[in-house]
Specification:
The structure is a single chain. The protein is α/β, with parallel strands linked by helices. The mean pLDDT is 96.
Length: 358
């Protein structure tokens, strides 16, 4: 089968090969024919070594498709079912799951060290234990989440990561208060989803911050009340909050520099929500006095900060009701053979989300 492979960490191009085999099928496992997958910035981060990932590997973790085969003991799905790929399934038995914090379950991360694919030259891993830039993937049964027949594969793929992460940051982690002021730093697919979440919660002012003109324009269409470049943020802070700072600031870039900017633009007693996935060696510096004196809440948001399966169901319900726009997030579509074009679209900021149709 075909799959897009990164041979070594640090390379900026993927090679689409037709000699890749999905492996690991057996009891408790599911074989999925991938139909659509989104390109998330985390894929680029893994390719560049920002996020730890063994190589060679097949990127992609935001996918949807149909079940081809189920292993012994699998009862939730059957061949022919439409599913979204969940890259962070909950085991239901660990301390985090028992506390109701299923987004902190580490069971899914254990899969990242087991090869998902094989080529004549040896084993190939799948990013985050999945690897959806491939025609087929074999995953644990918990990674295959059934979806209704009326949800298109491209929409379902977005729900698998970016939309769930961004919406959840506003709805679950921050629990944005109606009438509040919000700033979102970084307005790709995840940031736009956070904007939609803040709008759903009734935020009075939502300021989108991004260096790319097209993303700022898109943010306004998705519910932002203002859109500014990073250099214009101080002026927006003054205009919207009288210089006090925003009630909520979402950092959706994953860098200490933007996190510091987010902190500085959060009002005293306000909330900074860290959504972006950053590097192990990128440290955010805060002094102990400001932590005490400003009483700002710093809330990291992992995969939307809530039960993933409930979040999927909620997102589908909101989409059906026309309360959120998911199809508008897909600004580009490419075939798997054009995957490197999609990478360039993400790097330049031209795309909110590129859908790879497989």
């Amino acid at each position: 089968m075909r799959a897009a492979v990164l041979h070594e960490i640090g390379q900026d191009k993927l090679e689409v090969l037709d000699d890749v085999e999905a492996v690991g099928f057996g009891p408790g496992r599911v074989r999925i024919r991938v139909r659509a997958t989104g390109l998330c910035h985390s894929d680029l981060s893994a390719m560049g070594g920002v996020l730890p990932q063994p190589a060679p590997f097949v990127p992609g973790h935001e996918g949807a498709g149909e079940v081809l085969e189920v292993g012994e003991g699998v009862t939730r799905v059957k061949p022919g079912d439409r599913v979204v790929v969940c890259w962070l399934p909950a085991c239901g038995a660990c301390p985090a799951c028992k506390r109701g914090q299923t987004e902190l379950c580490l069971a899914g991360f254990m899969n990242a060290g087991t090869p998902n694919f094989r080529r004549p030259g040896g084993d190939v891993f799948g990013f985050a234990g999945t690897g959806t830039f491939a025609e087929e993937v074999v995953v644990d049964a918990g990674c295959a989440v059934p979806i209704p027949d009326d949800v298109p594969f491209d929409i379902a793929a977005l729900i698998g990561c970016g939309v769930t992460t961004g919406l959840g940051a506003a709805l679950n982690t921050a629990d944005v208060e109606a009438g509040s002021s919000v700033a979102v730093i970084g307005c790709g697919g995840v940031g736009i989803s956070a904007i939609q979440g803040a709008r759903l919660k009734g935020a009075a002012e939502i300021v989108a911050v991004d260096p790319v003109d097209s993303r700022r324009e898109a943010a306004l269409a998705f519910g932002a009340t203002k859109a500014v470049s990073p250099d214009e943020l101080p002026g927006a802070k003054q205009l919207v909050t009288g210089g006090e700072g925003f009630d909520y600031v979402f950092e959706v870039v994953g860098r200490s520099a933007t996190a510091r900017t987010a902190y500085d633009n959060t009002r005293r007693g306000g909330t900074l929500v860290v959504v972006g996935a950053g590097a192990l060696d990128d440290f955010l510096q805060l002094n102990m006095f400001e932590l005490f004196f400003d009483e700002k809440r710093i809330l990291p948001s992992m995969y939307g900060g809530g039960d993933v399966l409930r979040s999927y169901e909620r997102t589908i319900g909101l989409w059906r009701a026309g309360r959120i726009d998911l199809s508008g997030l897909i600004t580009h579509r490419v075939a798997l053979t054009e995957i490197n074009e999609a990478l360039d679209q993400m790097r330049t900021g031209a795309a909110l989300r590129t859908c790879i149709e497989i």
